[in-house]
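#struct-pred

JT: dropping the chains for the assembly here, can someone run the whole complex?
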Amino acid sequence: MTNPTNVQRSRRGGSGEVPLQTRANTIVKAADHATPLELSDITIRYGGGKGGAEAVSVVEGFDLTLHAGEMHCVAGRSGSGKTSILTVGAGLTLPTSGRVFWEGDSLESMGDDEIADRRRALIGYVDQGGALIDGMSALENVLLPAVPDGEVDQRRDMAKDLLDLVGLGRRMRHRPAQLSGGERQRVAIARALILGTRVLVVDEPTASLDRASANRIISILKDTTSDGIAVLVASHDHELVRLSDSLTELI
Amino acid sequence: MNAVQRFIRSRVLLLTAAILIAAMCLSVLVQSQSQAALSRTVDENSRGLYDVLVQAKAPTGALLQPEIANGTGGISFEQLDAIRKLSGTSVAAPISLVSRVTQNLEAPRLDAMDYLGYNAGLAGTATADQAAGATAPEQWPAAESVLSDNTKKYRLTASAVTSDGVSEQTLFKSTAEGTLGKARLVEEKAAGGTSIRIAAPRDETGIKFPSPAGGSEHNLFNLSVSLPLAPEVTESVVAVDPAAERALLGSAGDFLAPLEKAPPADARDAGAIGRYFEGLFTNGIRLDELQEGPDFLGVKLKYWAPLMTQYQQAKRTGQLTADSQAIPLIVRSGTSLDLKYNVRIEEIDDAGKVVQEVGTVSRSLDKDYLPFVSKDPFVLSWPGSTDHSSLLGATGNFNQGLYTPAQWSTDFAAAPRYTDGDTAANGAVDKTAVPGEWVTVNRLPEKSANGTPVDQTQREPVDERAYRENLETGKKTAAPLAMVYGTFDPSAVAAAAGDVNKLPLGGYDPTPFTLVKDAAGNDVPATELEPSLSATGLASQSAGAITDYYGLAAARGYTENAAVIDAVRVRAKAPGSWKEAQPDVEQLAADIREMGLEATIVAGSAREDASIFVPGYYKDDAGKESALGTVQQSWVRQNAADAVTGSLSGTNVTLLFLTLCGAALLTGASTVSYIRKRRSEAGTLRAMGWTQRRIRSWVLEEFGVGAVLLAVVGVVLSLVSWSLATALVCVAVLVLYAAAALFAAQQLRHRDVIDQEPQHDERLIQVDSPLTFANRQLSTNKFNTLSLAVAVGVFGAAVGGLIALLIDIPRAAGASALSGLAAAAVAMPSILLALAGVVVGLVLTLVTGRFELNAKRQYLGILQAMGWNPDMLRQVRLFENALVGTVALPLGVLGALGIGLLLAPYAALWAGVAGLVAVLCWIPIATKVVQ
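RK: done, full complex below.
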């Protein structure tokens, strides 16, 4: 696949149809401190290394401005680059070109340690399937982000509250192997929120879940936005797409 | 896809089979190599020159130290003949210690060229036709001298230094002063004509050292200054039978060939021989005849020369009797005695102040010294001198005083008594020498060669432990006179005798002592002790052997044949190795014991090093004693071949066991890897409707292919090596493989998942740091952690074993004869095995390390996503490996120590250290690898 056409659609206020915009119509706002996450002219390519393989361009010139309390959904078919956009936004991988701003600061000027520190304070990342650490209970998993700052004990009550919030207050001593897929996903969301995250980056939270479990996840995500947390979610779940404040559909 | 294709596709199974086949091949290699080395070593070394040592009945210990001076005798000629007549006897070679020979060397002198030119009155008969090689008068060069017309005052400082191998010892240092000048010819009228004589310059005082040195005098060619000291050298002599000795030594005994037939009775009559040659000289003999000489009873004249010197000496001193015997004697072609003589010459003024350093001249009595035949060993030459004495040619005078004859003594040093101490792993025994009484040594002879008293102040006598014993010499004294017949090469004899079973009883070449620790116990550079000039030291150098037992009887003081044989070395007729000949040798020894003699089986023995501490060796004037230190000497240890056999067999078993252990570990690791890879595949098959039984068959078929392969290789290897051990190893490998197959089939069966209550244990350590996180991960995956730790431990132990072998092989090779050879022979397979162990350990760590690699990468990614920075992630990896290393450390160190103790006990500690370092090095390397 070469140079796929990315189409971005925005919907403000969560009501009514939002106009479909082509790349030429992409709205790029100037970065400011009220904007927790901004992606500017992001291009992501894979391959083209020493083996002579042809480079595959997954994302071309992608722009996104995510405001506090906003839930933005990145939709698209498999392989369209949804997860790539999320990992770039979370600072886990670097884009081929383009810039990523966290609260107005470009990641280009940061070292690995600073990115890790800022990520811990700003972004909660929820992997597809809610990857948890085996051998550790749900509560311990939720507390893991607090380890680097040595705040495990201080955050313990908050972790329990969060697990209560996601409906797992009675299962906090269970290990990942003893939890269902939806439960693991909820534990992962709780873990992402433990440090007072301002941006929640969630990859396919409802994939392979039954409707009821998916709706519960969607509900949790929606509730977080009401607390001023921005949510960047990759999904092709219609319900999630419908409830998101803005949408980018990758073709 | 059939089972064979699946087996090939499953690289883990293929790898497992390959590893087990490699283990089987390695075990065969180890066995074949070490067995071959063992057989070769024992065959070549367990039988020496002789099998049984026969002595007069006396208590004997297990160690057969050459008893240099234990000459108590006791075996008669009749008993010797009886031994020779035994049906099992091939060679019976007698040996006895005869005596020590004290050689008073010629008094040293310093010759300064002071040649006066030709003068018919002085040169006398020195014309071309009167003396062979003489220069015609008209061709004599002009007079020349290193001395001046006017006398000058000189100071001569003479010193003699000897070395006992530990330190140099100054025997004396003496100074004399006087004036010297060029000689002059003095013509004086005498009755009937004019006499010419050589005279010193009128104002010359000459130089004279204290007596017995004779002072200085001028002669035709030199000014000769007599120097102090006549060094005394004492050596031991044994008696052997030429024919039997040659039979033992083979070609190295060829020097004995002319003496295989014992000299006739008249050849032992010293008086008769002396009178014969005196008559010969009286009647006149040409110089060329003198040099080659007429043979007397088939022996050239030159060989009789030492006898003649002693004959004349004995005749003059009245010692020659009708019973005096001439003893055929062979001597070493050199010795290692070390004695250096220095003379410093200074020109001084009347006040004694040095005007000019003329120079220092020296002469060293070293390996060129030969007892009985050395001439002018200590004639030193003034710097710048030329020897013109050859102008006269060879005078042919056969004068007493050509050199001072040797004196025989039956009062000689005996070996010290030893007390056994600890026995080391290789059989070496610590010993302590028990000295005898103090005696004063380094003492000058009571009288000089011309009978005058000797000034004893020239030397400072020293008290030493003497180890002296007196020999019972019988009722009648005799004067054995040496007849030097030839020389032997001690190295050739040693080569013929081999490193095992050297000739005992002070034979030709007693094993040397090596000083390894000083008196304070500190290590010193290994120093081979040279023979002591004091004649009382531990080391004794054999001068040679007399080859006439009738002469020996005379030396012992017997007029008739007597029991003068100290020991008989008997070789059995039975051919082959010690193991093959053992029954016959034991039967022969039993037969000899029935004769009332002591028979010690020497075959199957080997030399081992023994450490001997020698206390109270020196005593100074104040009476303070000091020890010599610790010396090492090789001893004969009986049944060492059996010990080596047992040792190597033990090593074999150990190596095979270790090989199997490594194979088992690797098989276990690869089986677990196989199970993990096939678990999802088994689930899919189950979902497709496969029954449990069919899935098990599916697994076992794959393993079956490998089992068939292993069985074929095992059978082939067993047949090729034809060894029960190989067959056992192959069976063990097959059993191992079958167990792995059953285990894999069992693990891949379906298990119903039972919903359980929370299993989280609150007692677990809370995760609040990278260290506690690493700990939790490892404790969650105990099997993988343990597998990895065992693998790392195996790696460390193998590295330790390899290092121990590399360190120990040079030591083992030099430790002793038999064990050294055996150790050297099995060195390569041992190193190969240790290297294989290192490789197996590495493969194990890689295989087990890969088990959780994906899971590890996943959770490291999760931690990264939640904001753990790179340094913390590195800490997690480091702590994980450090914890694994902590578990592996005792395994690696103890394993290395164990292997070291089994294979290389002297380097076991190094093995442990190497195992420790290997495991510690693995930690950062593994941390770096798992990025």
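JT: nice. The helical segments of chain A are 82-89, 112-122, 138-143, 152-165, 181-193, 211-226, 238-243. Residues 1-33 of chain A have pLDDT under 50 and may be disordered.
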